[in-house]
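Sequence in, structure out. Go.
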Amino acid sequence: MSIFEFVFSLFGLVLGLSLAEVLAGFARTVQARARIRMGWLTPLLGLLLIIDLVSFWTGAWRERDALRIALDPLLFATLIAGIYYVAASLVFPSDHDEWPDLDDYFMAQKKIVVIAVMGCNLLVIAGIVLLHGGAAMTAGRWAGYALFTATALLLILTRSKRLSLVLLCAMVSYYWLVPQLGALIDGGAAAG
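Output:
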């Protein structure tokens, strides 16, 4: 068993449970669709969390050669995975009778879930810096994180469901657009 397999077996389990939690919440919601108003906000928040979880999973794979077996990295990874799990458990209501309108549920829960996602991303950045030094965080990476954080903060602060929808769509598209933005910034910085 490689070091990566050993380390990943612990927090990969928790990440898998997080994905299962979001998917189970969505399945319960689809089952209850006749008696609730689903809307777009809660499912998009679930999609955002799934994409962020998978991006963390792929990031962990990229860092596999830098991982070591020790208490600190295992606790650090478990902390991130645990935060993801708590966020995942809050995306969909456990009782649809209490929350017949999922957009209302979203407005009540979004702050905790989005702060958790932001926290996980900040911890990932801290992990990258701890593993590779500050130079690993290129200007493009910082720009991407700043854009994500600004959008997330707007989402937390807005009381508008329409603006929340726009911001969620922007955050979901972030995972495809920001790598290109980062490459442009970093490529421009290297060329200039």
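Check: Residues 185 and 191 are 10 Å apart (CA to CA). Residues 102-132 form the longest helix (31 residues).
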